[in-house]
Automatic annotation (TrEMBL), chain A:
Gene that this sequence comes from: dppB
Protein name: Peptide ABC transporter
Compartments, record wording: Cell membrane
The keyword Ribosomal protein appears for this protein: no
InterPro entries: BPD_transp_1_N, MetI-like, MetI-like_sf
Alphabetized Pfam families for the sequence: BPD_transp_1, BPD_transp_1_N
Ranges that cross the membrane: 12-30, 101-122, 134-155, 175-194, 237-256, 276-301
Superkingdom in the source lineage: Bacteria
Membrane topology: Multi-pass membrane protein
Organism per entry: Homoserinibacter gongjuensis
TrEMBL record, chain B:
SUPFAM superfamilies assigned: Periplasmic binding protein-like II
Source domain of life: Bacteria
The keyword Plastid appears for this protein: no
Annotated keywords: Signal
Alphabetized Pfam families for the sequence: SBP_bac_5
Protein name, UniProt field: ABC transporter substrate-binding protein
Signal peptide as annotated in the record: 1-22
Keyword Lyase in record: no
InterPro entries referenced in this protein's UniProt entry, alphabetically: Peptide/Ni-bd, SBP_5, SBP_5_dom
Ranges of residues in domain Solute-binding protein family: 88-462
Length: 309, 543
């Protein structure tokens, strides 16, 4: 097991180098001098351009800049933004918020998605099953920003049930609406996955056997059916957790959540290259780690996978 | 929501009844917000994270500028209409408009208790002038031209002399009657001693001498910046509220959603998506007024067919006549831009396009455009495509397409927009003079004087003269205008100088910007200034 983990972590290393190199070269290969952007419509003097290029190491060739950056990153220093803020600090500030938002979204997915999926699966072809099919199809077909704007307009502005954006300190109550929006899309998948899995498990011999032993529905459904149906669902949610952290940019922007996605959104608008590269790099690392965790989770949930080498 | 609205209405009736009962109350003052002079509520302002540390000489964008403007008091300040009055200064005087004597009001302090002296200004300006990596350093060299200013820096380069604690003198490189007008701009703010010990720490938590100071929470990066009234400030811009809370928004849409639900009180831009509805949403809390922003496109004189000769002049004039500015501002911008009539701005003193010879070149006139274009063809036949370059990351495509279509339809030539992926890419080619197309240009006024734009864009060798325009007559008229002792004389000379610009058209003026903004139902006395910034110290909000 330990060797398996180490092997997976080692596989992450080329992914890290490859992705940072690609991001770095793409951002820095963009035509034009970022110094000129800082002056807007005004034209700086050659002396000013030279002074600022030296300040941000823009006067050095691409490869030496990449290795300078990489050296800093390996020492745990993700660099500073053009505004002089440390990217480490920015991430330390924004990551907890994004993590909380993602957690809340996962809880919503688990709570509503699994329960509804279970009911739909047990009463296959019933009214609830058909209704949930239509509703989930509707949600899946809707782009996330449409869902987000509609939710913000309806619940935040028209009904006044929630703040349209997340307030100072990002309290849990403010995070609920964006978390529901974030959960929405994957909720549909979780529901349908649970339903299919429950139907499949219910037809297994061990379920008939359990009923045959005289066990009640109250024991068979949670212990025998649900538990064995959860393997694909859990891995789907774990994978989604990675996507939630990495991909909440649009939702965080709309609800003004002070998280990583929002920071990335602003950094891109400001063309703050050091910040963009560092944040994306961290997101890549997080995604790699989450994927390793998912692979390990398979083994924990299904002993058969653990023993087959 | 509904409950609060009913409560507010009832409150309004109660106030009206009280006024009726007290009878003569409307005679004294007539101030309609009833109670005392200053309110105590904290005003929430939609904001964005500044792009640079909060150091006056290194701040050239609106977010940092707005905060500094409320935390510092310059020698003068600007009123909503663009006129100026003394703030920290008692007098700014000169006999020859070259040698200036500046006297400060006595007994002023920074919010940390240290005194504001002549040194606070002189040291701040010298420091700014000697650091070429500051974004606003050009002020001391290009914009105002202090005696001794150089771009490559060096210690104490400017000709500034401290006479005593509250008096210092300035020597300019050329006579400039409007020098005091410029002194309200951010870059001329004073700095306390503590700044010079550690500029980086100061940029994170500035200490000023203005109407507000940082609260204990201060600047929570990425979230908000909190200001409270500065009790030691004694100037004319006294805070009328309990503080300012600048809230960081990633998008204008998010800020607008919060404005509709009264979670934010003042925004300075309505998002494009709400332009059609914001007047209905906000009622009389919607704001639309002119702002000191000038938009144009420029052709460098090295561009084929548009050189500094008869052909170039004819073609430039033909292009100008071929653009239907009124229709484009109406359809594309939904009336949020005003068609340009000159090279300055209608909100800046001295605006008088009617009085300038040749200003009819701004009129949409297809026949005239065709005629001028045909004349140019007899000198040197047209070939190729007219291209208008823009940065695709700035939302310019719509008006560029409309403009080139207008030119194409009027002149019957091929005209297309030429997108650059981002602003930096476009500016690099403009700066290197390698661009082979017309390109979009613009100017936001730093201080309310026509000299700001005319001097920076069209004077021979000026920093932002992207066209490489050079005309001895214009330069002469501009210099004379700068030295003219009265506004009237200056305007007359600047109008004459603009006449030369209309003849040569180094840039093709397009339209003026305007403010589209709004405020919440919780605040009163919200006014937007000539620079399109809300005048925050005057906003009142009850708790």
């Amino acid at each position: 097991m330990i060797w398996y983990i180490i092997r997976r972590l080692l596989q992450g290393i080329p992914v890290f180098f490859g992705s940072t190199f690609i991001i770095f070269s793409m951002v820095f290969a963009m035509p034009g001098n970022p110094v000129l952007r800082m002056f807007g419509d005004r034209t700086p003097s050659p002396e000013q351009i030279a002074a600022l290029e030296a300040k941000f190491h823009l006067d050095q060739p691409f490869l030496s800049r990449y290795f300078l950056y990489l050296g800093d990153v390996l020492q745990g220093n993700l660099g500073t933004t053009y505004a002089g803020q440390s990217v480490n600090e920015i991430l330390a500030r924004t990551f907890p918020t994004t993590l909380r938002l993602a957690l809340l979204a996962v809880v919503i997915q688990l709570g509503i998605g699994v329960l509804a999926g279970l009911i739909a699966g047990l009463r296959k072809g019933g009214v609830f099953d058909n209704a949930s099919l239509v509703i989930t199809l509707l949600i899946i077909s809707m782009p996330v920003f449409v869902f987000a704007f509609v939710a913000q307009w309806l619940f935040g502005i028209q009904l006044g049930w929630a703040r349209p954006t997340v307030g100072p300190g990002a309290p849990w109550s403010d995070l609920l609406l964006p978390a529901i929006v974030l959960a929405g899309l994957n909720l549909a998948y979780v529901l349908r996955l649970t339903r299919a899995s429950v139907i499949e498990t219910s037809q297994n011999d061990f379920v008939r056997m359990a009923y045959g032993k005289g066990l009640t529905r109250g024991r068979v459904i949670p212990v025998h059916i649900l538990r064995n149906s959860m393997i694909p669902v859990t891995t789907n949610i774990a994978a989604d957790f990675g996507i939630l952290i990495v991909g909440a940019t649009v939702t965080e922007g709309i609800f003004n959540v002070p998280g990583v996605g929002n920071e990335l959104f602003k950094a891109i608008n400001r063309h703050d290259t050091p910040e963009i590269v560092s944040i994306v790099t961290i997101l890549v690392i997080v995604y790699v780690l989450v994927n390793i965790a998912i692979d390990l989770l398979y083994g924990v949930l299904d002993p058969r996978i653990r023993y087959v080498k | 929501m509904r409950i609060t609205r009913i409560a507010a209405a009832a409150g309004g009736i109660a106030v009206a009844a009280a006024l009726v009962l007290s009878g003569c109350s409307s005679d004294n003052g007539g101030n309609n917000n009833g109670g005392g002079s200053a309110s105590t509520g904290v005003v929430n302002v939609a904001w964005g994270e500044p792009e640079n540390p909060l150091i006056p000489a290194n701040t050239n964008e609106v977010n940092g500028g707005q905060v500094l403007n409320n935390m510092f008091a310059g020698l003068v300040y600007y009123k909503a209409d663009g006129s100026w009055d003394y703030d920290a200064a008692e007098s700014i005087e000169s006999d020859d408009y070259i040698n200036w004597t500046i006297k400060l009001k006595a007994d002023q302090t920074f919010s940390d208790g240290t005194p504001v002296t002549a040194d606070s200004f002189v040291k701040a300006w010298q420091w700014a002038a000697s650091n070429p990596d500051l974004l606003n350093q050009w002020w001391f060299i290009d914009a105002i031209a202090f005696e001794g200013g150089t771009y490559d820096g060096g210690e104490d380069t400017l000709a500034l002399d401290v006479v005593d604690d509250t008096t210092f003198t300035v020597k300019l490189a050329q006579p400039r009657a409007d020098f005091p007008v410029a002194l309200g701009y951010t870059v001329f703010f004073p700095l306390p001693e503590s700044f010079f010990d550690d500029p980086d720490a100061f940029g994170d938590a500035p200490v000023g001498n203005g109407p507000y100071k940082l609260s204990e929470d201060g600047w929570v990066h990425g979230e908000s910046l909190n200001l409270v009234p500065n009790e030691s400030y004694t100037g004319p811009r006294k805070a009328q509220n309990g503080g300012l809370n600048f809230i960081v928004y990633a998008t204008q849409d998010a800020a607008y959603a919060d404005l509709l639900s009264d979670n934010v009180d003042v925004i300075d831009t309505v998002p494009t998506s709400a332009l059609e509805t914001y007047k209905d949403d906000l009622g009389d809390r919607a704001v639309e007024q002119g702002s000191a922003v000038f938009q144009s496109f420029t052709m460098n004189y090295n561009l084929e067919h548009f050189g500094n000769d008869d052909e170039g002049k004819l073609r430039r004039a033909a292009i100008s006549h071929a653009i239907n500015r009124a229709e484009i501002t109406d359809v594309i911008f939904q009336g949020t831009r005003q068609p340009a009539e000159d090279f300055t701005s209608p909100v800046i003193a001295g605006f008088d396009p009617e009085g300038i010879e040749g200003s009819d070149v701004m009129e949409y006139d297809v026949d005239k455009a065709k005629e001028l274009w045909a004349q140019a063809d007899t000198i040197n036949p047209w070939s190729g495509t007219f291209q208008l370059a823009y940065n695709a990351d700035g939302g310019h495509q719509e008006w560029v397409d409309a403009t080139v279509n207008s030119i194409k339809n009027a002149l019957g030539i091929d005209a297309v927009g030429l997108p650059y992926p981002d602003f930096a890419g476009l500016r690099t080619e403009v700066n290197d003079r390698t661009i082979k197309a017309a390109f979009r240009t613009g100017w936001q006024f730093d201080f309310p004087s026509q000299a700001n734009i005319l001097g920076a864009l069209y004077v021979t060798g000026a920093g932002s003269n992207d066209a490489d325009y050079s005309n001895a007559n214009f330069d002469k008229l501009f210099r004379e205008g700068l030295a003219a002792p009265t506004q009237e004389e200056q305007s007359e000379l600047f109008n004459e100088a603009q006449g030369q610009l209309f003849e040569d058209l180094p840039a093709i003026p397009l339209w003026y910007g305007s403010v589209t903004a709004g405020y919440s139902s919780l605040v009163d006395n919200v006014e937007y200034g000539w620079d399109s910034w809300p005048i925050l110290y005057n906003v009142t909000k009850s708790e």
